[in-house]
Amino acid sequence: MFEAVSGVLITLCVLPFLPFILVYAAGMLRKETKQASFRRAMDFTTPFLIFSVSALYNYVFSSSFGFYLLILILLILGGLLGSAQNRKRGKIEPERLAKGFWRLAFLFLAPCYVLLAGAGFIAYIVNS
Length: 128
Description:
- This protein has about 130 residues and is mainly alpha-helical.
- The protein has one domain (about 1-125).
- The chain contains 5 helices and no strands.
- The chain has helices at about 1-15, 15-30, 35-60, 65-90, 95-125.
């Protein structure tokens, strides 16, 4: 049982676009709007992107610092987003901040995944 669950989680982390497609398709089958399905798919895919991008960073740059660097960047992004919300509204709304942060993290991580996957593929070809 544990091996099956870990196998599924590893597959979803290696291919983070797969859970995006599955959640988006499930939302469309449930007759949700395209926008709601897309947002739900973004929210569900973000944790898989965090682990995928950090692993790809570690592979491409032969490092073990990828996860910590990514968390640092995301914390800075969250601080900037909170500061902007405080300036605009005069107060911080935690629920709105968390939702915006999570979706900005997706928008930051998706291109990073594509770039690092391409760089990792090229590095693998060159090194073999």
